[in-house]
Amino acid sequence: MKVACVGGGPAGLYFSILMKRQDPSHEITVYERNPAGSTYGWGVTYWGNLIEKLRAHDPDSARTIGERSVRWNDGVAHVGDLTTVHHGDEGFAIGRRELLDILAGRARELGVRVVYEHAVTDGPDGPELADADLVVACDGVNSGLRERYAGHFGTEATAGRNKYIWLGTTKVFDSFTFAFTETEHGWIWAYGYGFSARHSTCIVECSEATWTGLGLHRTDEAGTLALLEKLFAVPLDGNSLIGRANSEGGPAQWLTFRTLTHRAWSHGRLVLMGDAAHTTHYSIGAGTTLALEDAIALAGALRDHAELPSALARYERERRSALLPVQSAARYSARWYENLTRYIHLPPARMFALLGQRHSPLLPYLPPALYYRLDRAATRVTALRTLKRHLGPRLARTLARTRQAVRKVRTPHQSVRK
Fold first, then answer.
1. CB neighbour burial string for 273-287, b if at least 16 within 10 angstroms, e if fewer
2. At 46, is the secondary structure helix, strand, or coil?
C-alpha cells in the first residue's frame, strides 16, 4: 500500500511503524506541519498495561519508551494546609517530545519517510495525496482534513464547564500530585506529575467564575504564572512554572476542554485516528494510550482484510466498542471536578478516596459520605463488591431518569395559542 499519514503525533508515527513491520514494501509518508522537535505539551501519562501492548507489537520502541519513562507509585493530595497519601497508584510518564523522538527515529529506521514543516492543505483528492491508497487523518483535535468533510463525519463537540491551562514546572514530583487551593473566588486546583529528571507537567483547572474572579481572563502569561506560583507555593516548593514547552504557537492558553465524537470515522480512502477521531477528558490521562491503541487496531484491520472498506469498518467497530467505557469514565471524571464543592469539604482522606472513585456512574447520585461508607464496605465483602459492580450502573441510570422526570414536572408548562 501507499499510505499518507497527516500528522506526526504518536498515532501517525506508531501506525507507520506497525505497517512497515507488517510489510516493508508499504510506502508510507508521515507529514507534520511543525518543525522536528517542536511540540505543545509537557509530559504524557500511561499505565502499565500499555507497555505490554507495545511490546507485543514492536519490542524495540517499547523497550526504549519503558527505559525513558518515569514511574510513580503513590498519589498525594494537598487540600489547603492538609495532605493525604494513597499508596499503590502506579503510573508512568514520559516527555511528549521524548516520545515523539523515539517513535520518529524508529519509523525512519524502518524506512518510513517523515517530513516536517509540511502542512497538507488539500484533501485526499488533491494532487498531493491523490495517489495514496489510504490517507490517515491524525492531525489532532482541530483536524483540517476532517473539517473538509465535516458534514460526512458528523462531528459533535461537547464543551466542559471548567477552564484549564497546561504548564510545566521545575518541581519534580515523585508522586502523582493533586493540590487544591481555596481563594476568595472559589477553589482552584492542579495536577502534577514528573516526566523527567528535571521537569513535571502541571495542569491547573478551575471554574469559570473562579477564573474571572482571579482576573486570569485578562492576565498575560507572566502574570498568570506568577499568580499560580503564589497559589501553589507549597506543593511547588518554591519552584517556577513554565508556559509553552517551546516558542511555537505563542504563550500557554487557558482552554475549555471539548469532548469530540463522530457519526463516521472514514470517508472513502480517508480515515480518522487519535484526537482527530475522539477526545477524552485529560483528567483520566488516556489520550496518548488511546491514540496508540487506534494505531494498533487500524494496522491489524488492514493486515486481516484485503479490501479497504472492510478493514476500515472493522477498525471503527473495534475502537468504538473499546472507547465506550473510557469515554464514560472520562465524562464522570470531568463532572467530578465540575462539582468539586460537593466533595472538597470532606476529610482529606475521604475526599481523596472519592477522587479515586470519580469514574463511578453512581457517585453523583448518592450523598458523598454515604457512597464512601458503601465503597469501604464493598472493599471488605466480595458479595457487596460484585453487587456494586453489576447494579451500580443500572441504579445510576434509574436515578438519572428519575431526576430528569422530576425536573420536567417542576417546569411550568407553557400554553400555546392557536
1. bbbbbbbbbbbbbbb
2. strand
Pairing assessment for the beta strands 270-272 and 134-137 based on DSSP bridges: parallel
Pairing verdict, β 241-242 and 162-169: antiparallel
- Could you write out the DSSP letters of every residue in 298-365? HHHHHHH-SSHHHHHHHHHHHHHHHHHHHHHHHHHHHHHHHTGGGTTTS-HHHHHHHHHTTT-SSGGG
Report the alpha-carbon distance of residue 205 to residue 207 in Å, rounded.
7
Calculate the alpha carbon distances from 217 to 33, 210, 282 in Å: 30, 10, 21
Distance CA 344, CA 348 (A): 8
Q: Where are the alpha helices (DSSP H) in 114-182?
A: 144-148, 150-153
Contact 20/110 with Cβ under 8 angstroms?
Answer: yes
Residue count of the chain, please give it: 418
Predicted pLDDT at 413: 44
Tens digit of each residue's pLDDT (9 = 90 or more) over 230-264: 999 999 999 999 997 554 557 889 999 999 999 99
Give which of 5, 2, 3, 1 is closest to 273, Cα–Cα. 5
> How would residue 379 be classed by pLDDT, with cut points 50, 70 and 90?
confident
Q: Which amino acid is at 97?
A: R
Joined grid coordinates for residue 366: 448518592
Residue 66 in grid coordinates? 519503558
Cα(227)–Cα(239) distance, integer angstroms: 13
φ/ψ of residue 219, rounded to 5? -100, 140
Q: Which of the two residues, 375 and 219, has the higher pLDDT score?
A: 219
Residue 330 has pLDDT above 90, yes or no: yes
404 band by pLDDT with thresholds 50, 70 and 90: low
Q: pTM of this prediction? A: 0.89
pLDDT at position 416: 35
Q: Supply the pLDDT for residue 377.
A: 84
Coil, helix or strand for 145? Answer: helix
